[in-house]
User: What shape does this take?
Amino acid sequence: MITNPDLARLAEGMGVRLQRHDNGPKGMYVDTTRTITTRRGLSIAEYRSTLAHELGHAHYRDVPCRDPVRHARQERRADRWAARLLLDGVDVAGTLAWHGHHRAPAAYELEVTVHLLDVYLQLERKTA
Assistant: This one.
């Protein structure tokens, strides 16, 4: 499993600076400064999922846009990037089986949000 220090090293290797903020969105990426900021007080799953999602934006050098279709496309792409980064098929399959295929406790054990687990499962269905 990729750890929080692994995520921080990945960000550093990408030339992305990590910061924290109070209130507001869980996370955001600013391409002009190559900065990701995450909100204080997130659960472990929220923090890992948010940071990985924002790293996806950094990977693709996404910039905010007003076009809702393009924005949604960027969000889905960052979710898929994060899901592939944080989750592994063997771990997911074993954890889901252990929890009787209940997604919430499986996501908790995998330290990701249910949303990110769902994104991963959807990716797996498409490649199966």
The mean pLDDT is 96. Residues 4-127 form a domain with the Zincin-like fold (CATH 3.30.2010). The first helix runs from residue 4 to 13. The longest strand covers residues 17-21.
